Amino acid sequence: MNRPLKEASMPAKPPALKTPEIPVAEYARRRDRVLTSLRKRGQKPIALVHAGDSDATLHGTYRPHPHFEYLTGIVDEPGAILLFDASAPAGRECSLLLKPLDPEVEKWDGLRDEIATPLKVAYGITQIMRLPRLGRVLDGCMQRTRTCACLHPFGWLGQSVSPDLAIFRQLQERYPGIEIQDQTAVLARMRSVKSKAEQKMIREAVEISRLGYDAMFRTVEPGMTEWDVMETLEHGYRANGSRGPGYNTIVGAGINGTVLHYTANKEPLAPDDLIVIDSGANYGGYTADVTRTIPANGKFGPRQREIYELVLKALEASIRVATVGATMAQIDKASRDIIAKAGHGDRFFHGIGHHLGLEVHDITPEGPLKEGAVITIEPGIYLEDEKLGVRIEDDVLITRDGPVVLTRGIPKTVAAVERAMADRG
Prior knowledge:
By secondary structure, the protein is an alpha+beta fold. The chain folds into 2 domains: 24-191, Creatinase/prolidase N-terminal domain (Creatine Amidinohydrolase, Chain A, domain 1, 3-Layer(aba) Sandwich), CATH 3.40.350; 195-422, Creatinase/methionine aminopeptidase superfamily (Creatine Amidinohydrolase). Helix content is 34%, strand content 17%. Helix 8 (196-219) packs across helix 12 (414-422) and helix 10 runs antiparallel to helix 11.
């Protein structure tokens, strides 16, 4: 049975959502960079970026495709398309196409704005029209260029093709001889290097996560359930300005901590359990990604401490390698060598981490890390026969002066974790 949250974790007043903002001018600069990249091959292609449709009314909160959000900042226009036309006259290279107004739909989903100057100013795009004009607009583009560039990732074999490729194939039938280019790496490269504004968003997501973890550390005890732990964390996020977690929270106690993406979160905490907690707050579309492993009773046992400190040693080794020019493979090797030397190499069976941003597993470019990248580093050891799992995960900003551990404020040494759990406030 779930127990009520402890009073110490409850806010004194209803939470107020913070209003994160990246300047409209930054989105415009991003679109200009895409246009510059499209022109590098000496051609002037068109490209489409789709927001994606929504059934979020009954199935959660709508999120546009991260490429669309990254280039526009628009999060409430399902079905919208951003058109790049590198062959168009200056000032007309970007167009935004929105779904038509529908009074019946608006009764259910809310009113939408007319296309007028206030909307154009808010979005920073002067060319805005309704989607039914897309066919005529593309016909006009084909009078100036016969090259199309795909920016969306292609679907794998057996999956649907990307939405931009589907439209370009229709254009090929209408205009034989059209060239379709693979420019899917353009936005992967751009999104992997976070601007100062993006870094600020991620730092805020981490800070909100810290506050949630702080509340959780003070309340966990045997007899609670994994669900109680999750609720305490996520309540802490919402109480401090977040809309909630950036991904499904994992709370795995005992043997459940050896399951990488365990999300049932329903079992009670036994006194001798270690609990793997993988959760991070979302702020303005950007997410933190934090994992801490804690003892249900507030004190690590000898075996638990042994495995925990081995994983922590591996984590710190990988962090030291996380510099400009390093690869994820090199960062992985630093942890894997330490864990393998201790005899647990076959119990570390996932990669060391991933890029972080608008997606928890953010799009990953090829090549070494650049200044401004934000990555996770998360070694782990999973001993099913001992019902013992340990994973520790930090979010790391890559800078020219070395790695910056954004999540350093969330306790992770044995002493710091035990101290945080002893502080019942």
